[in-house]
Amino acid sequence: MPKTKPAPKHANGTINKSAVIRELIASGLKKQPEIMAALAKRGIKCNSSLISQMLHPDTEKARQLRRKKTREDNATGERSAALKRSAAIRELIKAGKSPTEIIAALAKRGIEVSPITIYRVAGYDRRHGHEIERKRMERARKRGDHVSANGEAPKTEMDRAFEIAKEFGGVRNLQAVLKRLRKLVR
After folding, report:
1. Domain locations in the chain?
2. Which residues pair with residue 9 across a beta bridge?
3. Residue 97 pLDDT greater than 80, yes or no
């Protein structure tokens, strides 16, 4: 039985799985199950995605290029075409346009959309809009500037105290009642 050389290690002492997989590929193993079995014999646990990346480096390089391009687009402030399209659809939906009018208006701008894209954007907004509205209302409630469903501002403690003072004929009368109440409680 041929002697296997020790697995290459990273600087921190852990096994460099990528290097081991590359060695196995160079030795003639070309299928994922064969490589998994060879790694298991060496006592190395590895997931199939790492082996797939090593077997198909061109695909991985293409993914990395796409990620890099996306990061560059985000760094320059450029938005992807899909985001621009969705924003344009939302703008026209808010303006009250029908799907056919939206398709025509966007075609004039050079943006091609299908009716299903419009329905998906509108549906997403309908489904998730109530969550956004609920969170906005919660923040407003915490700040104290919440408006209830009937259009009235909620009663604050000062509003309630003012109403009670009116019922007792003014603040002085309310203070006199509170003094009497304090004597009764003691």
Report:
1. 1-78, 80-143, 156-186
2. 15
3. yes
